[in-house]
Amino acid sequence: MIYFDNSATTKPYPEVLESFLKVSSDYFGNPSSLHGLGVQSEKLLSAARKQVADLLQVNSSEIYFTSGGTEGNNLAIKGAAHSRMNRGKHIITTAIEHPSVEDACQSLMHAGFEISILPVNESGQIELSDLKDALREDTVLVSIMHVNNEVGSVQPIAEVGKVLSQYPNVLFHVDNVQGAGKVPLSLREAYVDICTYSGHKIHGLKGTGFLYVREGVRIDPLFHGGNQETKIRSGTENVAGIVALSKAFRISMNNQLLYHDKLEQIKKHLYKGLMEMQGVLVNSPEEGAPHILNFSVPLLKSEVLLHALESDGIIVSTTSACSSKKRAVSKTVDAMFHDQARSESVIRISTTYGNGLDEAKQVLAAIQKIVANLEKIMRVAK
Amino acid sequence: MKFDHIIIRYGEISTKKRNRKGFVDKMKAHIRWSLKDIDGVVLTANRERMYVLLNGVDHKPVIERLKGIFGIQSISPAIKVERDLEVMKTAALYYLNQTSEEVGTFKITTKRADKDFPYNTDEINRALGGHLLRNTEDVTVDVKNPDLNLLVEVRREAVYMTGEIIQGAGGLPFGSSGKAMLMLSGGIDSPVAGFLSMKRGLDVEAIHFYSPPFTSERSRQKVIDLAGKLAEINGSMKVHIVPFTEIQLLIQKQIPENYSMTTTRRLMMRVADKIREKEESMAIITGESLGQVASQTMSSMFAINEVTNTPILRPLITMDKTEIIKIARELDTFEISNLPYEDCCTVFTPASPKTKPKREKVNYYESFVDFDSLIEKAVTETEILTIKPGQTFDKEEAMEDLF
Fold it and tell me: Its domain of life (chain A) (predicted)?
């Protein structure tokens, strides 16, 4: 099997599973308990927090563990909006955000918030001038993803941060679920206030994640209860998952340093191969993230191609896994090209460390073969 | 374009005469240690300054580390470029753009050590200044009080540019004042007292009184975490954990309640003094602030201090709680200190301790009890830990490979 759907989820590293199992069986105490078993769990929790903070070059007190990307984005957006609603009720986001950002913003409209949505160009990037034009007196939150989950375009987070640093009223939230461990981002240098991370996209376990909230920034909690995570996220901590996450993050960040070029090389190869292929339109920008490559075969519905590849043992996805159950239109590709046929026939390849160039070659050959074969049939059908 | 070297100015040490070499050597050793994992940097020194030659290493992390080293007055990054006016222009702009704080006004001061350089100082000033004005927004010239005075030095081999002055930590080089023992309770004050002592060049070891089961494992951990914070300054901190339960129980039994606190402090002081003697140090540091609690009134200190003639350093004695908290926040110790666990100071505190204890009385009460043997026992059973920076739990445990 060639697993090329790493933006949907990644396979946990074996070392990560070992940690999870060991913590679950040996250190199962509640970190809030006063007894020794609880203290041990608490130590693990704070060591994990420190490791994550160190990898991001931030303080331990700025890391809040969550259940993953969706919770992180909801907590960031609703928490920030609610804590700032006295200062204004205007939020800016982009047309290509993950549904957990888009819908969280939409849900705030009931509370009287206004949402401005920035368009993207054909490279899948926003224009800074659009952002500047959209900023208002009552803007309290700007939420922009780092790496797009569908096409891999990378937003100019550092430049956006620099612009927003001139607006003390505005909080800057970045969804870095797809960028973590793949595309470097310095939270400090980009003046990011809140940033979302997910465990299972970096070879950790599902149901784990964390939120970076810059010191001094106050957000309201979504969950009320036992006041864990300094009241921002109540609920008994998933210590085993958190320790596993901190390990997965360390290994992924390490791999980013060591194997970034290899990932880039695989993408370049796929990019070149697909560009040359008849009937294929590449949607990802050439200079985008090194692990996501999105293309369309306008003559074929994406599901057809997906299943054909699957029968060859190649796992890819249509649009993002989170929206693929709704309808097969890629929101991002639509926002980039405004072309329905193109956005209905989208296939996303997403790689990770451990994938090889040989796999990319096999995949290219398989696509070539399938497209050639199916096109004949489809033409007849037409 | 990259920074070539970092200039380090000494500050107070430069006023020293014959002892100066000792101070400078201590500081040099400390800087070497703090930069040891950054490959490629070289440290050189002369009478007035030290230089970190970057050899291609990014200057920012180096400066971050230098900022925390005591004895350093200020730090300035410097660029070395070829003697070419165009290159100099680019370098000046680069310098202006990378300063850690936004620059609103600047001036240029050129020194031309090499008079053969085809442009004179005035021409250079004007050329560089004009280039900066043309390529920036909202930046103007102010020759009297500029945010950035860009110093340009034209020498035979190259042109050097510097100007941004970053405040150092001040104080005296670590260890240049000898060693002292810090009474570290786990509260807000004592880590601050430790930090301020280290700033004046003291090598500090901590003493903590631990009374299981009355105080929890967590309060001990808290002290280790605090020591881990202080250890960031010089790389490690020794913590002496004194088993204090037996002594405290005896006090509870034998000393009248309102004097129990005074006696407890006196005995802690005696134990601390014994450990100090063993460690060949010359002072005890406490986090006391005058009048803050019953044990820190003038009368209490007078009664407690009677047990030793070792210098007791009280760096916080005149500070208000708010001032102390401010430093604790900067040190990142406040949050740790604020965790709500019982510690040695809180469990046995009587409801109404004497705020004006008398020496005669406390001596009278203590005269019926033999504490000496228990003090000896506590000292010999003291556990000594060496804490590394940011050590949140004992890494030797089997937990290490979980991460």
Answer: Bacteria
